[in-house]
Amino acid sequence: PVTTNHPSSQHPNIFQKLKRRFSVYLLFGRLFLNYKLAQRRETQLKKQLLKLNPQHGSIDDHPSLVELWSTLNLKNASLLLTQIQRLEGFWIKVGQYLSSRADIMPEEYLTTLSVLQDRMPPKGFEEEVMVTLREELGGVTGGG
Asked: At how many degrees (to 10) do helices 63-87 and 14-52 cross?
């Protein structure tokens, strides 16, 4: 079998796997906490807005509330993009999928994650594809 020192050709050890999982769980925990804190802030803002204008029916589209959610979505989308780019592989595909789902994702996520559609650094044929082929075929590849 052909061996190489390229990191992508080595299987991650248990500590590397745990580190990746922990970073994913940490990210999702952080995103969840950000949304919970924003919900609390939204409740406070709504109370303040209703005190200022008690006759106003629905205040869900008030500029300060829209700004609160837009800012949070942009912040969380940036955190998600950074983590996806760091983790690569499967997570790039997840990000690409999410960036194409205008029916379920806020606009800030779509815009931020759209970078994953066509602006990811390319992987070299010899570095990635051939290494995988050699591993899968037991070192036998045509022409190499």
From this structure: 170
Please state the three-class secondary structure of 83-143 as a single string. HHHHHCCHHHHHHHHHHCCCCCCCHHHHHHHCHHHHCCCCCCHHHHHHHHHHHHHCCCCCC
Provide the terminal-to-terminal Cα distance of the chain, rounded to the nearest Å: 13
Which pTM value belongs to this model? 0.72
Instruction: Measure the CA angle with vertex 79, ends 32 and 23; round to 5°.
Output: 75
> How far apart, in whole angstroms, are the C-alpha atoms of residue 69 and residue 61?
11
Q: Which is nearest to 73 in space by CA: 106, 111, 40, 98? A: 106
Taking the CB of residue 121, how many other CB atoms lie within 10 A of it?
Answer: 7
pLDDT score recorded for residue 5 = 46
As given in the structure block, the two tokens for residue 102 are 């205008």
